[in-house]
Each structure stands twice: as C-alpha cells, then as structure tokens.
Amino acid sequence: MIVRGVTNVSTYWWTDVPNFGDALVPLLISKFTDLTPINGPAATAQVVTLGSVIETLPPSWPGIVAGAGKIRGDKPSSLPNATILSVRGPLTAAALGAPNAALGDPGLLANELVTVEERDFEVGIVPHWSDTRLAYDYRFESLPGRVVISPLQDPLTVVGMIGRCKKIVTSSLHGAVVADAFGIPRRTEIAARFLYDEYEGGTFKFEDYNASVGLPFVIGELQTANSQTVNDRQDEVHDMFTALNGML
Questions:
Q1: Among candidates 183, 164, 172, 180, which has minimal Cα distance to 123?
Q2: Is 23 inside a domain boundary?
Q3: pLDDT tens for residues 192-226?
Q4: Of residues 44, 42, 46, the one with CA closest to residue 56
Q5: Is the Cα dihedral 8, 13, 14, 20 positive or negative?
Q6: Structural domain boundaries, residue 21
Q7: How far does CA 193 lie from the centroid of its chain?
Q8: For the chain, does the N or the C end have fewer beta carbons within 10 angstroms?
Q9: Among 2, 49, 52, which Cα is nearest to 29's?
C-alpha cells in the first residue's frame, strides 16, 4: 500500500483569495503522489502545477512545470532552466517553446477527490472569484433547480456541488474544467470587463484549456467536451503525477 505524503516539496499556488481552483493544488498532489506540497514563493518553488501561474516565474527558474498555464498569450515565456513536464493546453506549450509537452489541466482529476451520489441540481452557477455579476444575471436567476456555487468555499465542497449539477454556467475556468471532469455540459459566461482586463489575460486561459479538450472557445453556448478526449487528458495528468513523484 502506498503511504502518501512522504517528501516535502516546495510548491507555488495562489493564495491571495481562497479560490477553490487554486486550493485544489495541495489536494491533488497529496492524492496522486507521495509528496507533501508546502506552499512557498513562486521564485523558489520546486513545482508549479495548477493555475495560470507561468508569468509569476523568473526566467532563470529551475523547477518543474506540471500542468500549469499562462495567463496571457501576447508574449512568449522563456524558462530555459525549467523542466516542462506538462502544461494546461497547447497555447501554453507553444508560448513556452515546448510543443511536445503533455497536455491536461490537473483539475480534470478533481472528480476523483469526491463521491457524488446523484445529480440533483438542474443548473449550477459558478462565478469567478472576482465576478459579482453572474450570480445575479437575470437570464439564470429564475431557473428552476438553480444553485449558486461560491468559488470561495472549501474546494471539496465546490467540486462536490459541481458534480451534483446537470448543467454548469461559469465565468471560472476551473468551473468549466471540473464540469468536464464529471462529463457535465457547461456554458462559459464572461463579463465584458474581463475580456480586456490585463490582469485576467482576457480569454487566453479559456482558449488554451478548451483547445486541450478539442473544443472551440465560445461565450454563451452550452458545450460538452468529448468524453474520450477528456479521458485522454485525464490519463496524461495521471502519468504526469506519476512522473513528478519519481523526480522528487
């Protein structure tokens, strides 16, 4: 039997706000490796895995990229001393000059962190942590069986609630990722101010992830990722964690 949590590994994940997507990092590493992730500064981290964190790394960074992505697509990133084990999607891979990197957002394994008994919510509304609009959008406010799922809650609570939904409407990338992990149709809704926000990076991260599961990125349209493609990405993420475990 594998005993998890043997070796401490310095890992960077964003903690400024208790956002469920970022908070999945230590849960996933602890679940799928023998490593104990210890949060630390990006510049001295040994590993970055989930989230749009590539731009936080200094050019000389010597660590391991294990599923992370870029926030912006208008500038390439050079990490010549890093090991690019895998990245979120093909746009990040191209920007890093690593076209042969394995693909897959680690959040695609979030469904393995919880047990969902039934789909008893008709529609789940999953806003981005900074989106104060979506929960009160008149188009979805009166839908029967609707539930608003705050991304500021405990990450396992959020994942479990997403898994109980028949459809998801989200402005959070990881709302879409976790929906795909469960095979749930999802609709992306992004307020106009986010599309041109320099900090948020516009739609790049959505385009990057969607490309990894073979979907065009569209706003306001219900989409269902192909189950076989999602399974392929999940297998690559499993393989990534196995490789990461053997490297540290």
A1: 164
A2: yes
A3: 666 656 556 679 999 999 999 999 999 999 999 99
A4: 42
A5: negative
A6: 7-107+233-247
A7: 21
A8: N
A9: 49
Q: Enter the pTM of the model.
A: 0.95
CA separation for the pair 159, 117 (Å, rounded): 13
Q: Say how far apart CA 182 and CA 230 lie, in whole Å.
A: 10
- For 232, other C-beta atoms within 10 Å of its C-beta total 16
pLDDT score for 75: 77
Task: Give the span between the Cα atoms of 206 and 34, in whole angstroms.
Answer: 31
> What pLDDT, on the 0 to 100 scale, is given for residue 145?
94
At residue 191, the pLDDT reads 73
pLDDT at 152 (0 to 100): 97
Edge-to-edge order in the sheet of strand 146-148: 146-148, 121-126, 165-170, 186-188, 222-223
Separation of alpha carbons 213 and 228, rounded Å: 9
Mean pLDDT of 96-110: 95
Contact 58, 30 (CB under 8 A): no
In a domain, 27, yes or no: yes
| Structural domains counted in the chain | 2
Q: How far is CA 231 from CA 75, 89, 181, 183, in A?
A: 31, 15, 9, 10
